[in-house]
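Review form for a predicted model. The reviewer records the input and the model, then writes brief findings.
Reviewer: anonymous (R2)
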Amino acid sequence: MVMLAEIAALLRDAVRAERIYGLLSPYADRNAQLVFAIHLGSVHDYLGLLASTMDRPRVAADHFAKALERQVAMNARTLAERTRAAMLERSGQPIA
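Model under review:
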């Protein structure tokens, strides 16, 4: 599902982003994984991408902040930097 979120965001498909957002929202406080070996990061990160695709910058910023908080807590530096880059790209505003 998070891969679909990335695709919808990449294509800037707001209609599909909204549908995926609704399906993914119940899992916001979880981390996405592929099998047991590949950690894809906080679901909040993907919800942030979807919210920005739907032109909801405040909602996106909130999701990105929550994702960053989780990733820093897990010492997942690469994922934290990806979240910072996504926020900067999507809003033009850096995230601490």
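Findings: The longest helix spans residues 57-73.
Further findings: The chain has a mean pLDDT of 90.
Recommendation: see findings above.
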